[in-house]
Amino acid sequence: MTVSKPDFNVLFLCTGNSARSILAEAILTKLAGERFCAFSAGSRPAGIVHPLALETLTARGHNVNHLRSKSWDDDGPLGDARSGSTRRKRCRQAHRFC
User: Fold this and answer.
1) CA 98 to chain centre
2) Which neighbouring-strand residues pair with 90?
3) pTM for this one?
4) What is the CATH classification number for the domain harbouring 35?
5) DSSP tag of 71
6) Which domain holds residue 76?
7) CA-to-CA distance for 12 and 27, rounded, in angstroms?
8) Residue 41: inside a domain
9) With left for phi above 0 and alpha for psi between -120 and 50, is residue 6 left, alpha or beta?
């Protein structure tokens, strides 16, 4: 059985990576199926995911176990998001740092 790669990686960039970009990552992960692989990161990560963001996602049936506030300089899965067919979406604040 062959595992197919997603058509696109999507990286949501935000300054703190604690709410908006985390929400976007979780929502796209749930809705996209195998077509997209979603990631999020921040220019100055807060270090924690905002509790209200986690509560909102949990209440709507999203898996929040893997979500964490991370820097766009982190290795690991973000390396996948920075290579290949990647679409990036930045918040207005992060635009200054990207």
Assistant:
1) 16
2) 13
3) 0.76
4) 3.40.50.2300
5) B
6) 8-95
7) 11
8) yes
9) beta
